[in-house]
Here is the input.
Amino acid sequence: MYYSEIAGVGSYVPEKMVSNVDLEAFIDTTDQWITTRTGIAQRRISTGEKASQMAVKAAVKAIKHAAIPIEDIDLVILATITPDFFTPSTASLVQAELKLKNITSFDISAGCTGFIYGIQIADQFIKSGKSNCALVIGAEILSKVVNWQDRNTCVLFGDGAGAVILKRSNREGILYTYTGSSGDLEGLLTLPAIPLKNPFYIDNPISDQPSYIYMNGKEIFKFATNIMLQSIERVLKETKLTIADIDFIIPHQANFRIIDYVAKKIKAKTGQFYKNLDRFGNTSAASIPLALDEMVAKGMLQKGNRVIMVGFGGGLTWGSILFNWVR
Ligand code: ACO
Here is the structure.
């Protein structure tokens, strides 16, 4: 029986910081509305960098942190809804940039839950013996797919990337993984792909939608609070642990109010849920590894700590991972 463990983490955000006050200059919003409704004060925005470039920077840091030879990596999984291209995959671009040879690489699309899905897949590759060492990345340039005239969405998102090295181990690092989806709720959060405009095209309102994020914020809010709670409870039940046995919970960073609601419902201790969205906004698939890397950089994780990562997103999708920090 093989196990997998998180051996290294890294992250990268663009230099350009955009505050709520900066947004006031061109949309009808206020710093006060954004901070009280979401907890976001600022976000990082790409001024030209692509998802693959940010992903490589996060990956290089994770490889260095794991102190592994780069040739050990035999699998690259990259979660994104904002790839550089539909094909080649962003994972393939990362593979090329890192000069990795003859390995498996692919992107996955599970919205903001993409990183959780990625860890689950990599863990299965490792446990089945197909992979020894995986690079799992969440990288997003949401700033290219938000409508900057739509105050309902553009204030919420930011750009960034986070990466982990997941490697085969005789220690039980990843303890439990869980994912789910409800495609019937897809209309609550959409990002249309290239519209159909072939010579045989017949008018169709669905294929005419512009490629911007649309979100029914109120419904997503309700969904998120329920599913985050359920996803944490599922992990605890399956592993016969209680919330008191968990050192930290790293939730998808979408809204302070969602996180605080879940923390209260599950009777978490103060500080048990980690939050950094005040500085980065919602970076979709990058938000959880970005938060994990920040916690590691701050020295918050001690060997033996039990940590839950939990997320939700477009699809709709959700999931949770319980791991032991073994470094
Ligand atoms: N500035 C000022 N006013 C605004 C803004 C803004 N940026 N955005 C909306 N408003 C207005 C609305 O127009 C509305 O005005 P009205 O009452 O005159 O119609 C009013 O504020 C209230 O709007 P609500 O939608 O009721 O605001 P709410 O309290 O629900 O907060 C929010 C909105 C922050 C989007 C919240 O619903 C939310 O966080 N939802 C979940 C979002 C989320 O988790 N997204 C991530 C999904 S998955 C992924 O990560 C991709």
Q: What stands out?
A: The pocket of acetyl coenzyme *A is lined by residues 29, 33-34, 37-38, 111-112, 151-152, 155, 189, 215, 217-218, 220-221, 224, 254-255, 258, 282, 284, 313-314 (CB under 6 Å).
